Amino acid sequence: MNKGNVKNKYANAISQEEALRKVRDYAKYAVLTAIGIYLIWHLISIQAMSPSTNSVPPPPSGFRW
Length: 65
What we know:
This protein has about 60 residues and is mostly helical. It is about 65% helix and about 0% strand. It is rod-shaped, with a radius of gyration of 30 Å.
């Protein structure tokens, strides 16, 4: 192989700095998606653990306001 072929082969290559910038851009979206999924799942699980309004016992019979 001569040097001309090697240069043409890597003509479309990007620099390490540009590659890291692209990774950071996509990582932001991945983190935001993960946080959103976690919050939604966490809220649903908290709601599932809360008692329903029908299961609240009535106040004792001697209770006065």
